[in-house]
Amino acid sequence: MRLPKFEHFQPGSLDEAVELLAAHGREARLNAGGTALVVSMKQRLICPGSLINLKEISELDFITYDEKAKPRSGRRRYGGLRIGALTRLAKLVRSPVVREHFPVIVQAARSVAAPPIQTMGTLGGNLCQDTRCFYYNQSEFWRGARPDCFKAGGDVCHVVSGGDHCYSAYQGDLAPVLIALDAQVKLAKKGGERTIPLVELYTGEGEHPIGLASDEVLTEIEIPNPAGSWSGDYQKLRHREALDYPLLGVAAVLNWNGGKCVQARIVATAVGSAPVVMEEAGAILQGKEIDEETIALAAEAVYEAARPVAKIGSTPRYRRKMARVLTRRAIANAWGGR
Question: Class assignment of domain 58-128+169-336?
């Protein structure tokens, strides 16, 4: 499991990094914490000709909070949190600002793997992680016993018999929470940058799940202050309390006025090749007084919408049932946090 040969670059600034990325194109890969990339390289899932190490770019490691920022580009924004893409997950967990204003982000970050991984892993890397499945995430020797799957450049899916595309699952913990919080991400390349809603970063295609151009780098995450009073919760299903990717994750963010929910956003992870916004469940809660009956209806809507596939650690039937359970818990905890 040695690393393949590659050319290594360590830029000292974002400008230098995007210059290198533009010059080396599709042959280059960006490295932040390396907790997922290095393993994939050892398994020969990725064999980049060049590795651009972002660790020394201090301008991408920050957490700032603005309580009353001005609206941007005609959109109604309410100030909020800005986090650099190279911010370590452990730093998010410890941040007094994040703990005070967005505790659900701390909850999700703390659920990632184990403390040593949180110390190395970055927010940008966590958001941009690849999709996974039992047949793909193996050593080169192990995979050689079967025909190449869609994700490896072949024409078969070993997870779904007769499938015409890759069904590998996105299993990130922070993406569903940040999508529920209406986060945006800033993407930079040589000569410019663009800002998009985080939900649009995910293509939903297992073969190519992250919608970054080959010359782009994710630099910043922006989370607006939700309007009015709100609370959130994240529930994660896994075999062990540490190390494991989620078999299923459900994030709930609720806004309320008086005794009624005025807006609800429910987002699930590990049920598809991208985080899934459960719009029907959110619509059921909107404008309602949250009680056991309403929560049960929303949980049933998530159960009906969830379509988990096999080969990421447990049966689809079990994980789909647990989608109902985790949704009930997430909504009840979020509503109880008023």
Answer: alpha beta
